[in-house]
Amino acid sequence: MMSLGLVGPIEIAGWWALLDGQVYPASVTALTPMRVAAFEASGLTLLMNLDPEIGYLVHRRLSGILFLQYQTALQAIKTAM
To answer: Residues with Cβ < 8 Å from 23, sequence gap 6 or more?
Structure first.
C-alpha cells in the first residue's frame, strides 16, 4: 500500500474529483472513528451556482488545499536538491 498523504479533522480526501467531475480511484483507511459524506460533483456545482455564499466557501477551501499541496511539493523539491 502506498500513502499519498494524511487528512485530519475537517479535511477533504478525494477533492480533486470535485474540480472536474472525473472519477479517480482511491481508498481511505481511517485510523480513528470518522464520519464521511459522499456526493456527486455535479450536485456540488449546482449548489455553488445557486448559493454563491456556499460556492465561495467551497472555492476558498479547495484553493487552500491546492496552495498547501503546492507548498509541500515545493519544499520536497528544495529538500531533494
So the answer is: 17
